[in-house]
Amino acid sequence: MIEFLRGTIVHTERETLTLEVGSTGYLIYCANPFVFDRQEEEVTIYTYQYVKEDVLRLYGFPTRKERGLFEQLLQVSGIGPKGALAVLAAGAPAQVVQAVEEENETFLVKFPGVGRKTARQIILDLKGKLTDVMDEDTSGTLFHAQAEEEGSNEALEEALEALKALGYGEKEIEKVKPALRHEQLTSDEYVKKALQWMLS
């Protein structure tokens, strides 16, 4: 299995990115391709190769721990790669782990394609098995800090409201939000950048 790839992002779409490594371009499916900074000369993407019948795809993650959670979700009956990515796309793997440990079905059914039956199956299959996948130092603290940062950025919040007014859905906005959060821009500049990413 390919542990990780390090290279330059040359193209980003809603569900995939193309990473150039040497003279080869790898198409990588991601929960949120926009979390990777295209401005960096090199990025490291931890990968999972999925092989089933006539399907061969490479999935990518910013950390080993997110990849680990993806792998665990694939072990759940009724959850495939698309469903596992939908859970990770929210950008809060630490909350997913907490929901599993606390048997919080209400939180889990918020994800696309996860009903009550699947949520219960996730809890039954994974409770007690995720401590090595996500620990407090690398998950809860990080996402708590990110939430505070988002709340304090008024220009970003105004831009997100403007995107909603333009007709973009929550799912589309959530995919670009993590990348926007790393920028320091005016509301108008945030909107322009978000539109560039969404339409590229």
Automatic annotation (TrEMBL):
InterPro entries the UniProt entry points to: DNA_helicase_Holl-junc_RuvA_I (IPR013849), Hlx-hairpin-Hlx_DNA-bd_motif (IPR003583), NA-bd_OB-fold (IPR012340), RuvA (IPR000085), RuvA_2-like (IPR010994), RuvA_C (IPR011114), RuvA_C_sf (IPR036267)
Domain of life per record: Bacteria
GO biological process: DNA recombination; DNA repair
Cell compartments where the protein resides: Cytoplasm
Keyword DNA damage: yes
Keyword set includes NADP: no
GO molecular function, one term: ATP binding
Residue ranges of domain Helix-hairpin-helix DNA-binding motif class in the record: 71-90, 106-125
Signal peptide: none
Cellular component GO terms, alphabetical: cytoplasm; Holliday junction helicase complex; Holliday junction resolvase complex
Record's keyword terms, sorted: ATP-binding, Cytoplasm, DNA damage, DNA recombination, DNA repair, DNA-binding, Helicase, Hydrolase, Nucleotide-binding
Residue segments, region Domain III: 152-200
Assembly with partners or alone: Homotetramer. Forms an RuvA(8)-RuvB(12)-Holliday junction (HJ) complex. HJ DNA is sandwiched between 2 RuvA tetramers; dsDNA enters through RuvA and exits via RuvB. An RuvB hexamer assembles on each DNA strand where it exits the tetramer. Each RuvB hexamer is contacted by two RuvA subunits (via domain III) on 2 adjacent RuvB subunits; this complex drives branch migration. In the full resolvosome a probable DNA-RuvA(4)-RuvB(12)-RuvC(2) complex forms which resolves the HJ.
Recorded family membership: Belongs to the RuvA family.
Function: The RuvA-RuvB-RuvC complex processes Holliday junction (HJ) DNA during genetic recombination and DNA repair, while the RuvA-RuvB complex plays an important role in the rescue of blocked DNA replication forks via replication fork reversal (RFR). RuvA specifically binds to HJ cruciform DNA, conferring on it an open structure. The RuvB hexamer acts as an ATP-dependent pump, pulling dsDNA into and through the RuvAB complex. HJ branch migration allows RuvC to scan DNA until it finds its consensus sequence, where it cleaves and resolves the cruciform DNA.
Comment block on domains: Has three domains with a flexible linker between the domains II and III and assumes an 'L' shape. Domain III is highly mobile and contacts RuvB.
Designated name of the protein: Holliday junction branch migration complex subunit RuvA
